[in-house]
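[Automated response] Your request has been received and processed.

Submitted sequence:
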Amino acid sequence: MSVAPLWPPCLGLFKSVVITLTYLRRNRIQCELAETFGVSQSTVSRAISRVGPLLSRALEDFVPTVEDLDTRVQYIVDGTLLPCWSRRSLYSGKHKTTGMNVQVACTLSGRLAWISDPVDGGRHDTFCLKESAALTDHDPANWIGDKGYVGNDMITPIKKPAGGELVEWQERYNRQVNQVRYVIEQAIAHFKNWNIMHTDYRRPLRTFRQTISTVVALHFYQLTVE
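Generated structure:
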């Protein structure tokens, strides 16, 4: 009995990998890739569908898990939305669009330490962080976040009281927290150099989680070899 190849035979492994990486990096339309490589759009789609999971599995050892986070290290965390075409169940009121939320943690020096599994974009950052179990074995007081994490015993800016204003020392404290937090925004921006992570996802929603896992694996691998 013949076994179906893992990638389109007319492309071969090398071109299938190139197409997949180009798609993930630039989020190019599949018909454009098909024209570039002289094949059909369906062939490009099959290459991406089959090679993406292979890349994810091949590079999974480079991806830190929650268990790899050091309890002695202070981390900065923030959530970011990875957009996809409008699906009402994934709508984020905060971002005014649809997508999936991942939690991103880095060290005080800005070294990317961890990216969570995706959660539906309609969920709050606090829910997503708890869902990831990142704080289960960690002292929340060693973690820094924005106002979306208030109430988790983390270091966060102070919210304005209802109908009131912050006093001077509270404003100064908030500025100091935000001055530390800027490195997580840089880490997220670097991750989103993969265009597929910051522009609308056009493939079927059922493939989005796998695509996110593939890009996370590629990104951590890239950081390792840089």
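Summary generated for your ticket: The chain has two domains: 12-58, 66-203. The first helix runs from residue 12 to 26.
If you did not submit this request, please reply to this message.
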